[in-house]
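Hi all, a correction to my earlier message: I attached the wrong file for 3'(2'),5'-bisphosphate nucleotidase. Here's the right sequence:
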Amino acid sequence: MRRYQRVLMLLELVRHARSLTTFPAHAYSKELTAAVAAVRRAAQITTKLQRDLANVESATKDDASPVTVADVAAQCVVIDALSSLFPDDGFVAEESAADLLERGERRCIEAAAAAADVSVEELCNIVDTRRPNSKRWWVLDPIDGTKGFLRGAQYCTALSLIDVYEGDYEREAVVGVLGCPNLERDGSLREGSDGDGVVVAAARGAGCFMTPYAEDDWTPLTTTQRASWTDGLLIEGVAASHSDHGASERAARTLKLKSEPVRLDSQAKHALLAGGRGDLFTRLPRPGYVERVWDFAAAKCVVEEAGGAITDLKGRPIDVGLGTYLDASVEGIVASGAPALHREALDAVNAGLAAKD
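and the right structure:
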């Protein structure tokens, strides 16, 4: 069965390769094509399962965050596809089959294997593939925004490739793909709609593009590049543990942003920012929280290639080449659609964190 699936994956790559010539020539064309195809394959599983949430097995991990059949199955198909094409690449991915089995969650593993159409043994081997000594590696969040997924709301599959690159750090996210099944086909967010879905893809030096999920109609994305923050739109997360809404509200007042922010789960927020459907993103977690790399690696590539800026609260570029975690000194992250205004946004956010109503 897996041989048949890999043949289908190769045919999918051939079918999409020509459409991805929309991108300017770049060094990672094969990897980008493979990443897009893998994310699309994951969406076939996750969208089907989200339509039947009442029957979706879920569990709670050690950090109290949820994991579902869809998370594990999506991780399986993405890693399997990429491993067959790039057998020397490593993986830094969120889910662990071994951890779930240790916690007694075999039903979740069995259901994920059925969803991915593999045996339980195959699924465990694939999901836990890491290759820690690889020269380059893929960073994967199979379902970023699992809580949103479980509410029937926004989520995304976030995939990036980390490789040696001439930039701020030794390694960088050189490819970034965000699969957002519930955004509208034009990349917008409409209340009460589950959308047709989009794929947003970027490669270093090649720009950022978007297509409806079921099509290959790639269009370039550009952030807003506004001249001032007045009447700009803030995008932030739903969960209070990852978003200090009071601090961001104070920053929004200082910058004279629109009164109501847009709140949604997952890196779909960065798809909106990259497409000019928002101006400012803030993530202000509780003190002491150390960010995981899979929550930002793909977003960093997407936002920067669309023309935006994304840094920590001190204005430092985000180092996504350290492994599972970002540097512990990163206390929050801000992204701007207009890099020329980024410092002003940082000042307002830091003041908002320091102030009390």
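Sorry for the mix-up. The chain has eleven helices and 14 strands.
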